[in-house]
Write a structure and sequence with these properties.
8-stranded mixed sheet, 9 helices, 23% strand, globular
């Protein structure tokens, strides 16, 4: 067993949890034909679990690449009896690239790491290719919901949409367009610290 697996006891918990998806092929069959949304970078599942309580007609999927976060999200889904929903350990850009076309009713992306320094540009998820994939995986009429403390990401999506003319319906706000929806853990911290929030909704 690699050292990192021996050190991280959440790995085995994640592998054995009933609500953790183990491969994408089986995952697609769970959501096929359902009204569904995906939470990209779901963290510990605060938003995902609360959003499902407010929208019981939907099936949700959380995507993250930290074992502890995946396990905590799966536990929240199980406690809430959100048994038609899942969480998966996966890299977000790779997940979006591998997702079927016109599959999701909603895609949520909230507070991605801004990686502000130029030398960290390769780590940024918000890219032209990523934006194109978001458009591809949304159903007609589906929406992309974005919240961030990073103004440059917020501006990037709007500029890129104007250039490519992907989404005809755009709502943008310096503030929170989704104030009535649950908040992420990061958002709660930012609000307490007085950090500005930027939000965007693009509908296909």
């Amino acid at each position: 067993m690699p050292f990192i697996e021996a050190r991280n006891h959440y790995i085995e918990k994640v592998k054995s949890h009933a609500l953790v998806g183990q491969d994408l092929a089986n995952l697609w069959s769970i959501y096929e034909g359902k009204t569904s949304f995906v939470d990209l970078g779901c963290g510990n599942g605060h938003f995902l679990s609360e959003y499902l309580k407010l929208h019981p007609e939907m099936a949700g999927l959380g995507v993250d690449k930290r074992f502890k976060r995946i396990f905590k999200t799966a536990e929240k889904l199980q406690r809430n009896e959100s048994l038609q929903s899942r969480v998966i350990f996966w890299d977000v850009p790779t997940f979006v690239q591998d997702s079927p076309a016109e599959f999701w009713d909603e895609v949520w992306m909230q507070f991605p790491d801004p990686w502000p320094k130029d030398r960290h540009e390769k780590h940024r998820m918000v890219t032209k290719e990523f934006f194109q994939q978001i458009y591809r995986i949304l159903k007609p009429g589906g929406r992309f919901c974005f919240r961030s403390d990073c103004r440059s990401y917020w501006e990037f999506f709007q500029i890129e949409n104007s250039r490519r003319e992907f989404f005809p319906i755009v709502l943008s706000q310096k503030g929170d367009l989704f104030e009535t929806e649950p908040k992420t853990l990061f958002q709660r911290r930012f609000l307490q610290a007085g950090v500005p929030i930027y939000s965007l909704q693009l509908r296909k």
